[in-house]
Amino acid sequence: MIEPAVTVVLIDDETCIRHFVSTALAREGLAVFDAGTDARGLDEIARRHPDLLIVDINLPDIDGVDLIREIRRSSSVPLIVLSSRDRESDKVAALNAGADDYLTKPFGLPELVARIQARLRRLASNPRHWEGIVRFGCVTIDLGERRVMREGGTVHLSRTEYRLIALLAQHAGRLLTYDQLLTEIWGPSHTQGQHYLRVYVGHLRQKLERDPGQPEHILTEAGEGYRLVGVQ
Questions:
Q1: CA distances from 80 to 33, 57, 171 (A)
Q2: Which of the residues 12, 65, 88, 127 could staple to 56 if both were Cys, CB 3.0 to 4.6 A apart?
Q3: What distance in Å separates the CA atoms of residue 68 and residue 47, rounded to the nearest whole number?
Q4: Taking the model in full, what pTM does it have?
Q5: Would you state the torsion angle of the CA atoms of residues 172, 176, 178, 179, taken in this order, to the nearest 10 degrees?
Q6: Who's near 188: CB < 8 A, 6+ residues apart?
Q7: Does DNA-binding count among this protein's keywords (predicted)?
Q8: In which region does residue 166 sit, left (phi positive, over 0), alpha (psi from -120 to 50) or beta (all else)?
């Protein structure tokens, strides 16, 4: 089964497809949130901050390629297209707009699950571990230089603050559980120390968020962990 805590948003105007895919993927251990319109789908993406998107580009109220472009303005998570269009030009247009994979209807569930697993494995094995630049809001993190800047000025972080924001940046868009963060930063003996995380996340929000009381990027997933969103 696919690892738990993976969140998927499914956008498809066909009720039967949404039910079939949602039910099947839930049996594989995924949390699936479905939407029948582009507006509802964009709302679910903003609310859920999913690990993966499945999008039908045959929606009645918007061109699917335009929807992919709209999604890519704020999200870089893996996106798999479902479509009855089997022309090469349609596939090329979707991939050029930002889709990661393209599956033609009718499709077999085992193939869809295999493609999802492949995308998640690729994400897990290469979670922004390059020594590059990560940007969100007015913040820039240079992972190679171990430097954080906001609006052009250097932000002074403690060693622990930097390790925490760098870890979130390397896994941008994905939920990191309390246990994962505590083990990575303080070691396995501190897995019950969630108060450590609350303190340091609070420090980071004060230094990096526009409004620390209403964070836009360093988000809490109640009872689960933290997620960095809005990364460019």
A1: 15, 10, 19
A2: 12
A3: 17
A4: 0.57
A5: -130
A6: none
A7: yes
A8: alpha
The CA distance from 64 to 56, in Å, is 7
Handedness of CA 132, 127, 69, 96 (dihedral sign): positive
CATH architecture of 7-125: 3-Layer(aba) Sandwich (3.40)
Query: Is residue 192 a contact partner of residue 183, using CB atoms and an 8 Å limit?
Result: no
CATH 1.10.10.10 domain span(s) along the chain: 133-228
**CB 13: neighbour CB atoms within 10 A?**
16
User: What pLDDT does residue 203 have?
Assistant: 94
> Cβ atoms within 10 A of the Cβ of 4, count?
9
DSSP 98-134: T-SEEEESS--HHHHHHHHHHHHHHHHH-SS-SS-EE
H-helix or E-strand spanning residue 166: helix 159-170
Q: What is the CATH number of domain 133-228?
A: 1.10.10.10
pLDDT digits (tens, 9 = 90+) for 121-159: 776 655 554 457 889 999 999 887 788 999 889 999 888
Burial environment of residue 131 by CB neighbours within 10 A (0 to 12, 13 to 18, 19 or more) = exposed
Query: What distance in Å separates the CA atoms of residue 97 and residue 67, rounded to the nearest whole number?
Result: 9
Tokens 């000025």, located at residue? 153
Residue 143 CA, distance from chain mean position: 19
